[in-house]
Amino acid sequence: MDITVNILLTIATAATPLLIAAIGELVVERSGVLNLGVEGMMIMGAVGGFGAGYLTGSPWIGLLAAIALGAVFSLLFAVMTLSLATNQVATGLSLTLLGLGLSGMMGTSFVGQPGARLPNLDIPGLTAIPVVGRLLFGQDPIFYISIALTAAVMWFLFKTRTGLTLRSIGDSHTSAHALGIHVIRYRYLAVIFGGACAGLAGGHLSLVYTPQWVENMTAGRGWIALALVVFASWRPWRVLAGAYIFGAVWIGQLHAQAFGIPVPSQLLSSLPYLATIVVLVLISRNKRLTMMNTPASLGQPFVPDR
Amino acid sequence: MMRLELIKRPQRSMLFSALSPFIAFMLTIVAGAILFALLGVNPLKAFEIYFIEPVSQVWQLHELAIKAAPLILIGVGLSVCYRANIWNIGAEGQFILGGIVGSIIPVLFPQFEGPLVLPLMLLFGMVGGAAYAAIPALLKTRFNTNEILTSLMLVYVAQLFLDWLVRGPWRDPKGFNFPQTIQFNDSAILPELMPASGRANWGFVFALVAAVLVWILMSRMLKGFEVRVLGSSPRAGRFAGFGINRMVFFAFMLSGALAGLAGISEVSGAIGQLQPVISPGYGFTAIIVAFLGRLNPLGIVAAGLVLALTYLGGEAVQSALGISDKVARVFQGMLLFFVLGCDTLIHYRIRLIGFATPKLEAAPKLEEAR
């Protein structure tokens, strides 16, 4: 029983950064913008979170720094693609390349240093309840943020007027513009929200998952988050499900390696990436369904006429 | 709020089309100077070490050619993809597979020697890269998957596969357990061009030949026209009878073959054996090369040399000033950012709309009146 609980807890820890980054990107893509810089914003959040936590000794300040750095970094993308109408695919790629380089440079002195870890929740009485206690009341704070965030985004997108406006911009920016909606302003806010989420996801990696700084520690999670959004057909609750499936794959291969299953460890390590491809194939196979779900103006630059 | 307003030009500006890479380079220099100053280094001194010292002697020019060769080879292939609006960003994986498949002969049949070995290796390398690139192409055409994500995922898979090979079945049994294959025999080593003055090998020649051939393809042949039409207007391309699926395969496999050739050239030229890591991110840097070179094969040759210099400069500042060589990655990323930003000037005029100035001026007057 204890082992099961432990495995479930580690799956939640592995799924949380994927969930947060993907939920952020979902909002960005719902507004019609494709930001391929998730990996870059995430690694910036990871290095910023670790650095601030390490230098101040407070993981909470680290958490705030991770969010702030992700948001500031995404602003770079927003200025380029929204104000200068650059190609979103290429700009997103360059954000990732720049983030990987910048984080490596900023983190040189952090390598091998012990980091600060965010403490797990501990409510006297409740956390001690057998089995469910630790699952419900004993996890790290970012886990609870991730669940709340998913619920909040669901509510925002489908139950509020602003959410409806955001979705309409993603489906047709020209019509939205003609109705007098500030397309660019909405998109700026969406991109910055996505950046803050990616930064938080990166902060989870360096403040909870493995409280240390390792270069390229995101290891493709930003890209998997992008794939999750496609897998989820741009629906928040499906992102939640997808993130936990991937968390399970990630943890499953680690456990398999620890058990010494006679399969090369490299093959097991590549499972999350192969699973991403398989999942993309399964979900994209139905062309009409994909076209129906994809925000219609996704990835297209918009220049308001005067 | 201050904001930018873009005004569409009636036609694309030839002036900015030519100037944009240079403006971007200047902006990168300015941003780099700020970066160096923040790191507490005199920017002028740093630039001398970064951009001038690495190319001040003949043998260093050879090193530049060694670094530029894979960047140009991959960048030229990617330019065809991007022109066709097909997003292959997994060239790093195709490079690795080229290196692996190209190494089958020297690793598994080291007794096989003679003039046939090298051409076969290069051919194998191209086939390996092209076959690996065919996977995302197949998935895109058959199952409609996003090629950006699949080609990128395959990079991680390729890196792990190489790691397994050199630690497992292909490890040199007499190599003291080091994760590497046997040293290639002499007939499997790519010859140096001018051994008297430096290490540069035939890889650089392959890069130049590839650039010229792709330039001819793109500007003088029907296939190149097809690429450009399908890239700028898929609808028009369909009416003209150009098959989009065939184009996806063509672009992916051409760029994969060139990346594979770059991979085996690097392994048999600069390294001489397989190791767990055979590329300092050439496949990703080549994306920058392609854009900096305006997706034009001849521009890519120049851009490849510039980006090769950023690698050498990174190594130089690390040893001379103790700055992390990651600074090279930062320079490369900034360069791509500025190029993309400057490209806006080709299609648009930019007008700054200032702060709400009249109100700000009015406010002090009120104060005075009181």
Automatic annotation (TrEMBL), chain A:
Annotated InterPro entries: ABC_transp_permease
Bilayer-spanning residue ranges: 6-28, 33-54, 60-82, 89-111, 141-158, 188-210, 216-234, 241-261, 267-283
Highest taxon of the lineage: Bacteria
GO cellular component, one term: plasma membrane
Claim: Heme is one of the keywords in the record: no
Keywords, ordered alphabetically: Cell membrane, Membrane, Transmembrane, Transmembrane helix
Subcellular localization: Cell membrane
Membrane topology: Multi-pass membrane protein
Keyword Membrane: yes
Primary location class: membrane
GO terms of molecular function: transmembrane transporter activity
Name assigned to this protein: Nucleoside ABC transporter membrane protein
Organism from which the protein derives: Mesorhizobium tianshanense
Automatic annotation (TrEMBL), chain B:
InterPro entries in UniProt: ABC_transp_permease
Superkingdom, taxonomy of origin: Bacteria
Keyword Transmembrane helix: yes
Molecular function, one GO term: transmembrane transporter activity
Topology of the protein relative to the lipid bilayer: Multi-pass membrane protein
Pfam families referenced in this protein's UniProt entry, alphabetically: BPD_transp_2 (PF02653)
The entry's keywords: Cell membrane, Membrane, Sugar transport, Transmembrane, Transmembrane helix, Transport
Localization, UniProt: Cell membrane
Record carries keyword Cell membrane: yes
Chief place where the protein resides: membrane
Record protein name field: Simple sugar transport system permease protein
Highest classification ranks of the organism: Bacteria, Pseudomonadati, Pseudomonadota, Alphaproteobacteria, Hyphomicrobiales
